[in-house]
């Protein structure tokens, strides 16, 4: 039975082409289905009043499901570019998840360091790495200072400057 | 056109339509197994049966489990454990089987390595087996999320963070996998889907593939002897069963399998009824809490060796070493440069390599459980480097190996 080869080829190419297009569209839909929901994304702003904080006592707040470390520094703790000034006081405000694999380090006030129990990483009171495996300092979340309050999730002037200087990571 | 005659019996009726006699021959009664094998060859059957136990116990757990972050913990620890009749039985069978299945997988793997059952036409058996190992690992991990205890949450946090790929900081990818900034409701539900639908389907397909890969090269034997299966099976069918080097799968080999399975069941149900706690981490009896990391996070025992390869290094080299450990076993048939497909005991320096690998992996497993402090960190680093060194040495060691003539 004689079959025109060009016609078969055309049918094969057309079928293959449209199937590929359909497949890509399905993959796109599948990808979007796994994206975080709008409700999850929009619940991303938290305001914290730090006026009641005690020096060298770690406060842990929650923002986007993540723990936020707020540490008011004493006068004799060494100054750091990562310090955040709220009112007259210096603070460490950072995401309390180890930058290695995301465990929560514990704060040891006498040793003035954070120690992560999972893989042994250590950070100082500015959130800088003292001991690996964590490759980078604790993240500083986007923040905006309003009087004695700090709004997390909104990038204020100070945050933008710090970010430009590479201090927030 | 197919021609059907009036059936003489139910068997004949089925046989005309489904060729049941032929299927039985091909799959069982004329599927040939070498005689010179030992109890280690029963591990495949034990794995198949353990998978069956996981499937059955899983079906019963599924009837009361609730994949919701607010309900999951209580649906397991209260409803299934204290309300559902025999709920505890299904949970303990499921948890113990999930743990023990890895013990048997490791025995199965090391049997293959020792007897060279990954070479000379058996490469696809090894590769399909490794795919099963990886899929079983994903299945175990996704199942570990479901009780939504502290270990579930924090294991989920740590493992999904691996996908940020170190300094590449692919946080978008991590958030996409989680469906949120941290493991939450969307995360739990999608891992529930993976655990009860997608991954079991993949596992079942891979099991079929694994068996199919076995058909042409046949089962290896404990002398690494190359058997002419056609000639030996002809001898068997002609009645010289004593002279033949092979036996039928059903019921000859199956009876051996079932004997070993009997011993396995004694061990398995001893664990289920008297020592189920080894598969139930006490930390996971605290509900998930995103603001409190357990003081010491470690995976289940079967992941400890690869965890210990991740742990002693800085972030990026650690991830590379971890990735290396995950894929290197796949390459075993190609890294072994020796033509000898005989037991490691007859292969000189490879015998040393085999036992060193086994000891190294046991050491990594023990160190992975210990906290990362002081001397343990040093030992962990040494053991991790040693693991990588062993695999780099493998092509050299096997290249130097003298070919063994004859059988």
Overview of this protein structure:
The complex is a heterodimer of chains A (about 170) and B (about 400). In chain A, strand 8 and strand 9 form a beta hairpin. In chain A, strands 2-3-5-4 form a 4-stranded antiparallel sheet, with no helix packed on it. Chain A folds into 2 domains: about 5-35; about 40-165, 3-layer Sandwich (Rieske Iron-sulfur Protein), CATH 2.102.10. Chain A is built from 3 helices and 11 strands, in the order H-H-E-E-E-E-E-E-E-E-E-E-E-H. Chain A has helices at about 5-35, 40, 155-165, and strands at about 45-50, 60-65, 65-70, 85, 90-95, 105-110, 115, 120-125, 130, 145, 150. By secondary structure, chain B is mainly alpha-helical. Chain B folds into 2 domains: about 20-285 and about 295, Cytochrome Bc1 Complex, Chain C, CATH 1.20.810; about 305-405. Chain B has a two-stranded antiparallel ribbon. The termini of chain B are far apart. The chains are: A alpha+beta (about 170), B mainly alpha (about 400). The interface of A and B includes residues 65 and 119 of A.
Q: Strands, helices and their partners?
A:
The complex is a heterodimer of chains A (169) and B (407).
Chain A: H1 5-33, H2 38-42, E1 46-49, E2 58-63, E3 66-72, E4 84-86, E5 89-95, E6 106-108, E7 113-115, E8 122-123, E9 129-131, E10 143-146, E11 149-152, H3 157-164
Chain B: H1 10-18, H2 20-29, E1 32-34, H3 43-62, H4 72-83, H5 87-115, H6 123-145, H7 150-161, H8 171-178, H9 185-215, H10 229-237, E2 246-248, H11 249-274, H12 304-310, H13 315-328, H14 332-335, H15 349-369, H16 374-400
Antiparallel strand pairs in B: 1-2
